[in-house]
Amino acid sequence: MSDAKPEFDSTPRAALSRASDAVWHPTLPRDVGERAPLNSGNTSDALLGPKEDKLVELTIEIPKSIRKALRVEAQDRGMSVDALVAMLARNYLKR
């Protein structure tokens, strides 16, 4: 066995960079519509995931044209009308 030390390579190496999906915990599913990224910085969030809101029933009256537009938009996005309305309300309220 040789006792020779390897030569030191002084050429600079590329710096480390953060991956584009670094805010997601690697063991959690990436259902973007259902789960928010883990950027709160709490250890419990990283281990358990964000707390999910309890779903409640909401009954409203809307014009037929809006209901039709919601159905078309939900079908185009590949989601249910309920999920679309929840997403739109969340975005409107910024929560």
Quick overview:
With 95 residues, the chain is mainly alpha-helical.
Would you kindly provide a written description of the structure presented here, covering whatever features stand out?
This protein is mainly α. The protein has 2 domains: 33 residues, no CATH class; 41 residues, Arc Repressor Mutant, CATH 1.10.1220. It has 3 helices and no strands.
Write the layout of secondary structure elements.
Blueprint: H1 43-48, H2 64-77, H3 81-93
Helix pairs in contact: 2-3
Gyration radius from CA atoms, angstroms: 24 Å
How would you characterize the largest beta sheet?
A: none
Shape: rod-shaped
- Mean pLDDT over the residues: 77
Q: What is the CATH top level name of the largest domain?
A: Mainly Alpha
CATH architecture of the largest domain: Orthogonal Bundle
Number of distinct beta strands: 0
Taking pLDDT < 50 over at least 5 consecutive residues as the criterion, the unreliable ranges are none
Enter the CATH topology name of the largest domain: Arc Repressor Mutant
Number of helices: 3
Q: How many separate domains?
A: 2
- How much helix is in the residues? 25-40%
Q: For the record, give the distance between the C-alpha atoms at the N and C termini, rounded to a whole number.
A: 64 Å
The H-and-E topology, N to C, reads as: HHH
